[in-house]
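Researcher: Sequence recovery benchmark, item below. Answer with residues only.
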């Protein structure tokens, strides 16, 4: 497993850069406010349909949650995109012994109330038009490695152009109060209810 690195100057530069490219490439980034506790870490579960997703969640965290950002990415992307490790990225190598180590590391991050851990439960990119979000089994290992005192936030993001030249990005956030001891199937079901409700809201938009 490859852990995040610390470099204040690199972090500040790419925080500015991410803000700039989102502003230049999108008509607008819209997201709703949802309840959350400043005294608990956040496990942020999000759908994964584009290269932008990690940057968009990074920006929402910077603007709203204001936690220390962490995200699990593939070892290939960790090595390929050099600056990601300075933005809170840590790597997972699928189907390897080190994958368990990574999940345990992510679970321990959730024991610190200052942290936010972003996970894409699908494990890889899928179309933004899928009917259901699939969940990889490793998520429950991550949860079981924590003290289970964190909070869940669901994020469902959609990109549409409408009447604009540049796309509009809309992210629907929802707090979910899961039981301290829960199952992967229960989390998947709750997330997909949020995803479907969000998708209905998005398709109902008229301009």
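Model:
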């Amino acid at each position: 497993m490859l852990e995040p690195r610390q470099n204040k100057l690199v972090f500040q530069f790419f925080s500015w850069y991410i803000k700039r490219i989102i502003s230049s490439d999108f008509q607008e980034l819209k997201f709703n406010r949802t309840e959350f506790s400043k005294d608990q870490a956040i496990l942020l579960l999000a759908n994964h349909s584009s290269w932008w997703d990690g940057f968009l969640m990074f920006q929402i965290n910077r603007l709203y949650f204001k936690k220390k950002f962490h995200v699990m990415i593939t070892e290939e992307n960790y090595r390929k995109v050099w600056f990601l490790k300075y933005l809170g990225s840590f790597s997972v190598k699928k189907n390897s012994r080190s994958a368990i180590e990574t999940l345990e590391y992510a679970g321990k991050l959730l024991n610190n109330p200052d942290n936010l851990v972003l996970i894409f439960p699908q494990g890889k990119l899928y179309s933004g038009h899928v009917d259901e979000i699939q969940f990889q089994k490793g998520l429950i290992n991550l949860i079981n490695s924590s003290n289970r005192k964190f909070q869940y936030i669901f994020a469902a993001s959609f990109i549409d152009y409408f009447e604009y030249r540049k796309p509009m990005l809309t992210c629907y956030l929802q707090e979910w109060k899961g039981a301290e001891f829960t199952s992967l199937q229960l989390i998947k079901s709750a997330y997909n209810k949020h995803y479907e409700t969000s998708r209905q809201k998005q398709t109902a938009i008229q301009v």
